[in-house]
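[stage:ingest] chain + small molecule (phosphoric acid mono(formamide)ester)
[stage:ingest] validated
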Amino acid sequence: MSWSGRHLIDVDELSAEDLDAILAESSRQLESIDDGGGWADNLRGSNVALLFAEPSTRTRLSFEVAARRLGAETYVLEPLSSSMVKGETLVDTVRNLDALGFGVLIVRHHRAGSAAVAARHFGGHVVNAGDGWHAHPTQALLDLFTLTLELGTLAGRKVAIVGDVLHSRVAKSNVWTLTRAGADVWLCGPKQWLRGLESLPVQLTSDLDSALADADAVMGLRVQKERMAAGVSLGEYIDRYQVTERRLARAVAGARYLHPGPINEGVEVTRDVARGPRSLVLEQARNGVPVRMAVLVHLSGSPQPTQPVSERDLVRTHG
Ligand code: CP
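[stage:predict] done
[stage:export] tokens:
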């Protein structure tokens, strides 16, 4: 394994070789799951805390399953039933989790940068499980793994990511992993949602037909209805950007459809696409476990230096 990072905050810290190493380990873990193999002990004796300040189904449960399959004990901290409702900051919460002896902290938070803040105050390993609009590294890794299992090498493959790209942490992390893997990435959505993305090494378009033309894979993003106020109506969005079987006729035959979930069926995609033979949506969910196991295995092999906490860092980030 080449990657020896202490934390996983975003995929931009991973080289192409690191991605290969994580994919290889994910394959090994998937094989062991499929074979009904015995559980591993990489994290035996370790306590893993899951601090989820935003709702989650797939990420939270797959991290829990992954950590337990590696021998860890898992503990979920839900901010609404924690002292965060009394005003305790994220930083103070993290410092207390550190004092309680947790070795791994998995953080989902609505504020971009929260996982990086947590990493500065935690003696063990921090994994970002999605922070605001910033990043969702393990989602991008499992998307890469899922696509690689389906298509083989992604070099030269066209992948269209369609929807509210601007507000999507999934899209941002996927741009990094997919381009590192050599894919030709297109981002498609209303122009308001492509603003400021011009420096990315991708094609930007507001024309769905161009994005889908000869695409090998299409990734939908959840349309957050609250964002519709920013100049895009729901009806207009469905009209211009909903991924349908008819529109997918422009893609290569057998093009795959991915979506991180949760899906608004009938908004960003039709039910027949989301649940049909080209859909990889449930494979993505399933692959969350081996990929997150691979990430935890990598982290458990890295050193754990402790960094000093400065008063300046004791910012109020929650409550
Ligand atoms: N893909 C994803 O992050 O889903 P959850 O919000 O259910 O974890």
